[in-house]
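One-letter codes give the sequence; backbone shape is given numerically. An example follows:

. . .
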Amino acid sequence: MNRQLLLLIVIAVFSVSSVVVLLVRSPDQKMFEAAPLLATLNDAEFTLREIDITPAGGAPFKAINDDGQWRISPADYPADAAKISSLISALQQAERIEQKTTNPARYGHLGVAPFTQADSQASLVVLNGDESNALIVGKPSKSGQGHYVRFQHQATSWLVDQTLPVPASSEEWLYGPLIPSNFAQPQQVSKLGEKGWQVQLTEQGYQLEPTRSQPLKYPSIVDDSVGQLLGTRIQGLASEQQWLEATPVAAFQLVQDGKTLEMQIALEQSQPLVMLSSDDDKGYWTNRILRISSFSLDQFNREAGQFFAPVEDRPIQHDGEE
């Protein structure tokens, strides 16, 4: 085979390969160099004040950043900051890795049709801060890693390299921690009442005050009890009528940096209800009737004597023993 014929074969193979690539690609799909989806989110000066969500087929709601604490509106209810952070983090990391269709007739294949359409599978995420961005989030990619998206007022759709955890309803973001973040490391925790107790934060952890000579059931029981209280999560809201019909069972007080959080607990049948009040001005945390689990309540609602080992479990010291 002479050199000229070999060259013609190479050219022919290259030409056929190029045609195949062009046929496989969508007619309006173009090569694109990866670029951040929302570069402003990574700007140190950018402040995100609000996230408006319209889930596919669901009721719209918004998460509001109130001095670093998130709450859900219109319920004006404390939100799960970790779940909100998960979405923000995914948006910060997301890069446009492939340009997709600009043809509205093909939006449905990617799930990025206008969310106002009756058959739309898209969710609308609006980020409001120093500037606003409205993003239509469609289907996840077939590989399971990445999402199809489109800015609301732009024709071009994109494949991004991150899976975006957009909530299907406000309930997915509602259930945050019971104790607000400004009381998450109290210097003092007290259970009020006749069989109550008080603990102080020391360099060794939380310790009962006043100290007693009785041995504890186990060394970390005080820290564990306070940890269970601080880690309790909200299970939902209750009505004022439910609170009025409930039976009071316990009251706690937390003090941090000179401010006080009061916690009243009552049982409606077997369902624990909690009302928080504070001398702090975070109004959306206070005077709300919240539900927590019975398991959580049992973990921290101890009487003072339950911290200590029963008499029969204590070592018996005989005469002459040291």
Observations:
- The helical segments are 3-24, 81-93, 107-110, 171-174, 221-231, 240-245, 294-300.
- Confidence is low (pLDDT under 50) at residues 18-29.
- The first strand starts at residue 35 and ends at 36.
- Residues 3-24 form the longest helix (22 residues).
